[in-house]
Amino acid sequence: AVSNPFFSAVSFLIAVPTGIKFVNWIGTMWKGAIELSAAMCFAIGFLLNFLIGGITGVMIASPPIDYQAHDSYFIVQHFHYTIGGGSLFALFGALYFWFPKIFGVTLQERLGKWVFALFFVGFNLTFIPMGFMGMEGMARRVYTYPAIGHLATLNAIATAGAGVMAVGAVLFFVDVLVSVRRRRPVADNPWGGYSLEWVTSSPPPEFNFKRLPAIHSSRPALQ
Fold first, then answer.
1. Preceding omega of 203 cis (within 30 degrees of 0)
2. Which of 147, 200, 207, 221 has its CA 20 to 30 A from that of 67?
3. What pTM, to 2 d.p., does this model score?
4. Domain limits of the chain?
């Protein structure tokens, strides 16, 4: 009990740098010529999911709420929105963005957007109900639970959401296999980037460049 104020204060303080990063990310996109590619959709999905994870984290930084939510499904929801909603969506966004440069193969944009839609809908269908179940007192790490009507319904929705995500995962692998098999030609700079990696070929040769180009500005691709 003596350490509770310390842990609570530190948990609240985490929101400060996180909030600054959100302003930074949103400011980067503000008034930009944003193209809703599959990679950008996953990046925006990451922001939305990570925001929910951050808000629920601030909630359980308060000891009275934490006493109620600890070891419940609310913690499962918070963890997965922070780690899963953050890391998973950012990883998929990076895969769709860097795949052409790394492998010289362009993934299917249309399939990629379907993958995003299935993952985003499935992810939220899975974990939003867990927040409500946790506040109702449903404990995590249990193999069964009371057959109460609303808990059964919320668990069924969460299970359906997991199934939707599974379909999205299968579709992603289909996208990779189809793209690798068709091997559509890809430009060295498919995204119109400015930095040095977009100057080399796709995929890059050993050591990235056959000969290192002269760099005269912060936007070598425009030289």
1. yes
2. 147
3. 0.85
4. 4-186, 191-223
